[in-house]
Amino acid sequence: MLRNTRESWGAPAKLLHWTMAALVFAQFALGWLAASWRLSPTKLNLFVWHKSTGILLLALVTVRIVWRLLNPTPALPAGLPRWERAAARASHLLLYLLLVAMPLTGWIINSTANIPFRVFWLFPLPDITAPDKALEELAKKVHLGLFIALALTLTVHIGAALRHHFVKHNDILARMLPGKGRRA
Ligand code: HEM
Ligand code: HEM
């Protein structure tokens, strides 16, 4: 099943969800390691990995949003309280916004800092702003703030997924897992 249905997610949506989930966790670690490593060739390599993975995430979230808009969305189980529906919608929208804003602020840091950088050592990333020390400092603060917001939202997101599965016993988690489409 490629396309989503009103009952479950199709294979591309699941693949994008779990690939991006893995990359986002790796990206947290890479960002933290790169920022805290002592100045050395390793630090520079960690930054190339962090920035490259971030640009890859920006490409993936673009594909994901387009795919999401072209497909039906699985309906939430009947009987789910209104506040939970509203919370699910709001938190998913927030996740998409953060997944776009994080790489964009990273890209601004890279441009303002005027550091030559090749995505996965392959091609140069064009600058989206001119070098600017004040904007660089601001973009760094916003990038860190967005990271904290993303980490908090994901804590709620994962907690909610586990609650639906283990406490409410509905199929919300199962239908996002690989190969469970037809049973949902
Ligand atoms: C162990 C980690 C995770 C679990 C158990 C999990 C679980 C889920 C589940 C069950 C859904 C489907 C909700 C529904 O059917 O209505 C979902 C949707 C979603 N997840 Fe996760 N997730 C995890 C990690 C992540 C991460 C790291 C991200 C960020 C990259 C993320 C972003 C999203 C988004 C944006 C949606 C909304 C899908 C949509 O409505 O288009 N998730 N997640
Ligand atoms: C979803 C994508 C991204 C996530 C989750 C992410 C996350 C992080 C985290 C956790 C840190 C360490 C905390 C900090 O010191 O600010 C960080 C730092 C940094 N990130 Fe990202 N990042 C992403 C994308 C990018 C991209 C695309 C670039 C550049 C092209 C980038 C450039 C940087 C830079 C330069 C720093 C160091 C900031 C400083 O020295 O204060 N990031 N990122």
From TrEMBL:
It is a multi-pass membrane protein. It comes from the Bacteria. Pfam families: Ni_hydr_CYTB (PF01292). GO terms for biological process: respiratory electron transport chain. Keywords: Cell membrane, Electron transport, Heme, Iron, Membrane, Metal-binding, Transmembrane, Transmembrane helix, Transport. The chain crosses the membrane at residues 15-35, 47-70, 90-109, 142-162. It is found in: Cell membrane. GO terms for molecular function: electron transfer activity; heme binding; metal ion binding. Its main location: membrane. One of its GO terms (cellular component) is plasma membrane. Residues 9-179 form the Cytochrome b561 bacterial/Ni-hydrogenase domain. Its cofactor is heme b. Belongs to the cytochrome b561 family. This is Cytochrome b561 bacterial/Ni-hydrogenase domain-containing protein. It comes from Candidatus Muproteobacteria bacterium RBG_16_65_34. The lineage of its organism: Bacteria, Pseudomonadati, Pseudomonadota, Candidatus Muproteobacteria.
